[in-house]
Amino acid sequence: xxxxxxxxxxxxxxxxxxxxxxxxxxxxxxxxxxxxxxxxxxxxxxxxxxxxxxxxxxxxxxxxxxxxxxxxxxxxxxxxxxxxxxxxxxxxxxxxxxxxxxxxxxxxxxxxxxxxxxxxxxxxxxxxxxxxxxxxxxxxxxxxxxxxxxxxxxxxxxxxxxxxxxxxxxxxxxxxxxxxxxxxxxxxxxxxxxxxxxxxxxxxxx
Length: 206
Hints:
By secondary structure, this protein is of the alpha+beta class. The protein has one domain (48-202). Helices cover 32% and strands 30% of the residues. It contains two helices and nine strands; from the N terminus they run H-E-E-E-E-H-E-E-E-E-E. The protein has helices spanning 10-63, 122-133; strands spanning 77-80, 83-90, 98-107, 110-115, 142-145, 148-157, 162-164, 181-190, 197-202. The strands form two sheets. The protein has a five-stranded antiparallel sheet with strand order 1-2-3-4-5, sandwiched between helices. Strands 7-6-8-9 form a four-stranded antiparallel sheet, covered by helices on one side. A hairpin with a 4-residue loop joins strand 6 and strand 7 (162-164). The longest helix is centred in the first third of the chain and has 54 residues, at 10-63. The termini are far apart.
């Protein structure tokens, strides 16, 4: 009895292997694309979360902003590209209100925040302010956001001048009705985006 069965030829095997290899490459590329997209989405979510936390902290600091007229006309706010220094009120249960110096700094693409100890002594407060202004504050800096391209601010005045961008230091006038800022506009621009995210805060809203 003659057996007519035959196996695969070498050409058929090579064609089958080539097809399997092509399918494997296409599958790997698809999986690699999915993984890369997932990483990019995770990074975007983390950046968005970090920006929300940074703005939430700024909102709290601005809401508790200490008006300079209540501190014998001391400077309580200093803004410049990449830096914000302000004095805020600190409230604790069963304790009198105290004052604290807060500094936001942008350096090397990283936005950080430092805060001094709370005090009721104005001379000690002046020391904390000078340390923050000179960037010699020994307080640990908390990283709020990374990959930040720039940090810019504008101040709002209720004296018909509106927004000001060229004021680096706010010094209250010596008259009975000094012109003081009531709003702070902050724009954060991340390195991966062309446009910045902008938010406006009321100063001393509480």
